[in-house]
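Supplementary Methods. Inverse-folding protocol.

Structures were first reduced to a discrete structure-token string of length 361. This string, shown here, constituted the complete conditioning input.
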């Protein structure tokens, strides 16, 4: 049933609902949000509930959003298709999960040796990124918004030490997105799975190492119980954006003020979510070291350089992708990355280096 037909029926006083049409009760739309996360998982699960509540609040209750965690309505990795097909009105996940749809989508979540969280927003808002984000998701009947960021992720949990690039060869490693392609070029046996599955695989020996997010979320999932070496920097994901995607037909059917309510709910959460991650990652890291015996270790420079070269190969491959839109997205990203990379040594890098110097404060 098309939405305009449903509205005629609803206007006549009949009660109706379909998978592709939100339930309407007493002038209120009841939207289903499906997520890629367990309910209230520290980090993304918490952020998803905040977004559902904020859309409801900013719409004045005219859109009531009910959250369905991974597995409650659809599997976590099924949320993209569920919203695209109209089974639910919106989802909360990360772009890094949708590479099978288009490699271009991966650029909007995280890029190895790519953009920081603030730079990611800068690209979308001021570098033409949002128009490209809309265009590629529009192919699937979706309207996308960034709604949070985990900040710099970690390279992850390793059962053994990493001293050279040779130590990576054959390593069974969990990661996602473009980072998986970077790692594969170094001979790592990359696997994609959820956080709980990653714990079980590390515990059973099916994995040798893996990364998920950072100290706050990682500690809640208990990775420190099965691997004690916690490596940084997580160059595969200098930032990892969280996204909300809305069924495009449902979004376009909203009046302008409710479209703005959805947009502002996402926009307003970005910094709140990002700074919560930063704060709680810092708290959790202290506890992991002091109470759980976690060994924080830096990747050798030779390994970081090798990863950088592999990441460069990944980007070079994408610049030659058969899809013109993917190529356009990559060129836009490279242009913006080059712009901010030329400025940051004087700005954020300069400040961080100054703060790390030895003086009394």
């Amino acid at each position: 049933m098309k939405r305009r037909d449903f509205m005629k029926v609803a206007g006549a006083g009949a009660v109706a609902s379909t998978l592709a049409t939100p339930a309407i009760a007493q002038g209120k739309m009841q939207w289903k949000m499906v997520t890629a996360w367990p309910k209230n998982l520290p980090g993304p699960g918490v952020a998803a509930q905040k977004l559902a509540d904020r859309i409801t609040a900013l719409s004045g209750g005219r859109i009531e959003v009910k959250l369905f965690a991974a597995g409650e309505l659809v599997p976590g990795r099924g949320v993209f298709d569920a919203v695209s097909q109209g089974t639910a009105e919106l989802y909360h996940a990360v772009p890094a999960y949708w590479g099978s749809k288009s490699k271009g989508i991966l650029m909007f979540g995280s890029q190895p040796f790519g953009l920081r969280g603030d730079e990611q927003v800068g690209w979308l808002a001021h570098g033409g990124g949002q128009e490209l984000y809309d265009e590629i998701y529009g192919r699937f009947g979706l309207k996308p918004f960034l709604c949070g960021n985990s900040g710099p992720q970690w390279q992850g949990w390793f059962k053994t030490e990493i001293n050279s690039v040779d130590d990576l060869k054959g390593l069974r490693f969990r990661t996602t997105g473009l980072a998986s392609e970077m790692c594969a070029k170094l001979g790592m046996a990359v696997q994609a799975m959820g956080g709980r599955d990653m714990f079980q695989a590390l515990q059973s020996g099916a994995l040798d190492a893996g990364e998920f997010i950072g100290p706050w979320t990682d500690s809640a999932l208990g990775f420190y119980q099965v691997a004690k070496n916690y490596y940084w920097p997580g160059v595969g994901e200098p930032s990892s954006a969280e996204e909300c995607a809305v069924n495009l037909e449902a979004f376009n059917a909203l009046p302008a003020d409710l479209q703005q309510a959805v947009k502002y709910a996402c926009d307003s959460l970005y910094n709140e979510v990002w700074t919560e991650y930063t704060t709680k990652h810092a708290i959790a890291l202290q506890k992991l070291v002091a109470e759980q015996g976690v060994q924080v270790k830096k990747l050798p420079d030779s390994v970081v350089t090798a990863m950088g070269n592999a990441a460069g190969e990944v980007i070079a491959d994408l610049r030659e992708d058969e899809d013109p839109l993917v190529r356009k997205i990559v060129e836009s990203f490279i242009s913006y990355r080059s712009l901010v990379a030329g400025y940051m040594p004087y700005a954020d890098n300069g400040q961080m280096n100054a703060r790390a110097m030895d003086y009394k404060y």
